[in-house]
Write a structure and sequence with these properties.
The protein is mainly α and 76 residues long. The protein has 3 helices and no strands.
Length: 76
């Protein structure tokens, strides 16, 4: 994703981290409706920053996997 530049990628990461932290609930990993809302939130954020459409699905999957790992820390 070097074509976006490090500054843009950093901005996307910070924005997604903050949005996901605020949007996750205790049982978000188990509820498909909440996971769908989070996927949509990530997709919209990536589009707004002109993230390449052909790479969005992989990025969304990666972001949600990372959020899953970090959610216990966020809840603490």
């Amino acid at each position: 994703m070097r074509e976006l530049g490090d500054a843009v990628l950093k901005q996307i990461a910070l924005e997604l981290t903050e949005k996901l932290r605020k949007s996750t609930s205790v049982d978000w990993q188990k509820r498909e409706s909440v996971r769908a809302r989070l996927r949509n939130l990530v997709r919209i954020t990536l589009r707004r920053h002109k993230y390449p459409p052909d790479k969005q699905e992989d990025a969304i999957r990666l972001v949600l996997e990372q959020a899953d790992r970090l959610s216990d820390h966020w809840a603490a």
